[in-house]
Design brief:
By secondary structure, the chain is an alpha+beta fold. The chain has a single domain, classed as HIT family, subunit A (2-Layer Sandwich). Helices cover about 30% and strands about 20% of the residues. It has 12 helices and 16 strands. A 9-stranded mixed sheet has the order 3-6-7-8-10-9-14-15-13. α4 packs antiparallel against α5. The longest helix is centred in the N-terminal third of the chain and has 20 residues.
Length: about 400
């Protein structure tokens, strides 16, 4: 909960402590002091600050960098453009499509990704190698570690920035990162999404994407879904693929960490969306289905599962339909490992899609945005193997410890 006190209250308020030691103590006056744009100090107690002030800081910081970049030559810009500056966009059922050729200038991600838990490579590119200090917008000391807010040169969403772990660790979601993201979003209205390695991440150094938007999928109504590791989850009504939704916050962080660990143990790529209220989990097949290339020229990752499809050419823009988007999220998502969805001792990963679909069919009313009979016929067409995607668990067990 954000702390909001008047001046008189702040002057008389006692110290507030959220951890041991004198460095973790702050007065109410401290947490109500707005953070100036360009602040060089490490910020503590972010979650105790008023959300409105935090929002204002994040937006003003992005706008400042964007204005400076607009006046600089392209090769010196920290942000190439404003993603929300009127590019062609229109609804695709419950999703949307965008035409933005500028994004095509972004360097391509590595194409040799095989293991979700690939160890950190100090010799490869990582965010610790950034030379321009202006790319670092803010230093944050969270309860679970130190993080930095960085610019994102090729934004896809409004006020699109990066939250990066200062420690040199791989792109693997662990409990400390989950808690840090939760702490960040507790005191602002922004959302964040995470791409695992093998699921659209391009830098193997822990980071997530911070955006000033409630994306399309988070606007869908949530209804009761299956039990996951003993906890009832929610599912977004009208979303045609596999998506598991949980309440956000520290109370569910360990449960979410277990789910992520199980996907990592099975070498299952995954994308997640964090909002101030909920966390959305999308397990994926290891390999991109061939059919996906026919429907959409880009990898279906976090932005697309959030509900936003961006293409770079007019022909691709016209070719993309609501039916294509629905099929893309269906074939690019998969069930969680069966042991998380266990309904009995004989259930295995080849059969797990059957009880999940049956549960959803009973719970989900007819979609107002698509032909529900078509959706279920598509979902019933193929199983989604997930157990290590053809690899034994022993093959990836030693890598999982790299978390």
């Amino acid at each position: 909960m954000s702390l909001q006190l008047g001046d008189a209250d702040a002057a008389q308020a006692p110290e507030i402590s959220d951890g041991p030691g004198p460095s973790s103590r702050a007065t109410a006056a401290d947490v109500n002091e707005p953070i100036p744009v360009g602040c060089a100090d490490e910020i503590r107690h972010w979650s105790l600050r008023p959300a409105q002030q935090n929002d204002s800081f994040l937006r003003a910081t992005f706008e400042s960098v964007l204005a400076e970049s607009a006046a600089a030559p392209p090769d010196q810009r920290l942000v190439m453009y404003d993603a929300n500056d009127g590019v062609p966009s229109e609804p695709l059922g419950v999703y949307r499509k965008r035409l933005d050729p500028r994004r095509n200038t972004k360097p391509k991600k590595p194409g040799d990704q095989k293991l979700v838990c690939t160890p950190f490579d100090a010799n490869g590119f990582h965010f610790g190698k950034i030379r321009n200090p202006a790319e670092r917008l803010l230093r944050l000391q969270m309860d679970s570690g130190s993080y930095e807010l960085l610019t994102n040169k090729f934004p896809l969403f409004p006020k699109h920035m990066l939250l990066v772990c200062k420690e040199l660790v791989p792109q693997q979601l662990r409990l400390g990162h989950i808690l840090a993201i939760s702490e960040l979003l507790k005191a602002c209205s922004f959302c964040a999404y995470f791409n695992s390695w093998c699921a659209s991440a391009s830098v193997n150094h822990f980071h997530c994407h911070l955006i000033d938007e409630v994306p399309p999928v988070a606007k869908l109504p949530l209804i009761s879904g299956p039990r996951v590791a003993g906890m009832r989850c929610l599912v977004p009504e009208g979303f045609q693929g596999f998506c598991y939704v949980f309440e956000a916050g520290p109370r569910t962080a360990k449960h979410l960490d277990r789910i992520v660990c199980e996907m990592q143990a099975d070498n299952q790529p995954h994308n997640l969306l964090f909002t101030p209220q909920h966390v959305y989990v999308w397990p994926k097949p290891l390999e991109r289905p061939e059919r996906s290339f026919e429907l959409y020229p880009e990898t279906v990752g976090g932005p697309e599962l959030l509900g936003s499809f961006t293409v770079y050419g007019q022909a691709e823009y016209e070719h993309l339909t609501a039916e294509s988007a629905a099929e893309l999220v269906r074939i690019n998502t998969a069930p969680l490992p069966s042991r998380l969805l266990q309904l009995g001792p004989d259930l295995d990963d080849d059969a797990v899609h059957i009880p999940v679909i049956s549960t959803l069919r009973a719970a989900v009313p007819a979609s107002k945005s698509s032909d529900s009979s078509l959706v279920w016929s598509l979902l019933d067409k193929k199983p989604f193997p997930t157990r290590a995607h053809g690899k034994s668990r022993s093959h990836v067990g030693s890598v999982t410890t790299a978390r």
